[in-house]
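Writing this down once: the sequence line spells out the residues, with the fold written below as integer tokens. I am pasting one below:
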Amino acid sequence: MLELYDGALDVPALLTRWYEEEAQSNYGAYIPFVGTVRDENGIEGLSFDIYEPILNSWFDAWQEKAAERGAVLKMAHSRGDVLLHESSYIAAVFSPKRRVALEMIEEFVEDFKASAPIWKYDLVNGERIYADDRSTAIKGSGLLAGGDA
């Protein structure tokens, strides 16, 4: 399940709903990851653009990996502006076994940072400034791929 929201995520509501959706599924482990906007470099927050067709196919591939391991993967991400100390990203793995959930959440979050088509901007003085120094080129993404396209 992939959910996209305008603005900051309601962490308690999402985590509670996901837990309730899977409470009777006989999973032995529920491991969430919550990404929060940190106060650094004088920013007021972050802003996000998402290319949904590629994000959907990337997430579908992860859903298949999760299903092969008997797990369920859920993710929510923000579009637009998210201010300091608010959440822009939540992922969770439900699994019969703890080890599967622990390994999968780490693999998923790392691949998300490297591969998800989400562009990050710093919010400074009310303006969006592309966060080039904290962005990762997506393999095969043309100009951003550094010549690997």
The first helix runs from residue 11 to 22. The CA atoms of residues 44 and 117 lie 23 Å apart. The radius of gyration is 16 Å. The longest strand covers residues 72-83.
